Amino acid sequence: MQNRMTMTRTGTSVLSTNKVIRNTYMLLSLTLAFSALTAGLSMAMGAPRLGIVVTLLGYFGLLFATTKFRDSSLGIVFVFALTGFMGFTLGPIISAYLSLPNGASIVMQAMAGTAAIFLGLSAYAVTTKKDFSFMGGFLMVGILVAFLAGLGAIFFEIPALSLTVSAAFVLLMSGLILFETSNIIHGGETNYIMATVSLFVSIFNLFTSLLHLLGFASND
Predict the structure, then answer these.
(1) CA torsion sign, 201 to 202 to 205 to 208?
(2) d(CA 215, CA 103)
(3) Is pTM beyond 0.85 here?
């Protein structure tokens, strides 16, 4: 009897985990497509950069709303609002790179690199089922330090620090992809809305960091 109960719980846990994974990647695909649409819209409109203050207020405000309503259908609305806003802020950045002589190549390389890293790390975490929960504390501290250093690079206009932050974010976002995917597989993250946000932010920061590094590497 006890063995049957254990098997039932295990089966239920696996089904629940598979559902979270399925819903997360489905929602992630939709939000990526929506953010690409809003990025294209901002490029077509010739929208200027919103500025660091407006961008941070918009991001953290929508992130707070998404977190608050993560267990309701309204959370889906805020996920699309958040990712759409991030896509809109990305449009002017892509436009700036496309205006360079080899800008199209830089953007395509950044996109290909982002896709390769995300798919490779996700496949590794899913197939090996390794537990990367031990990375949580390191990633949290690392992202906070890199974020503050990035703000310093912007306000004090230090290109070398900005490049260092971009390189650090490539590593940190790669680690976050492993951590979040592992977290879903092992039942640490049971809310697919928050899992989607975490993976989307990882992809977004990975792409912009690669864009910055590749742009610098190709600039005489």
Answers:
(1) negative
(2) 8
(3) yes
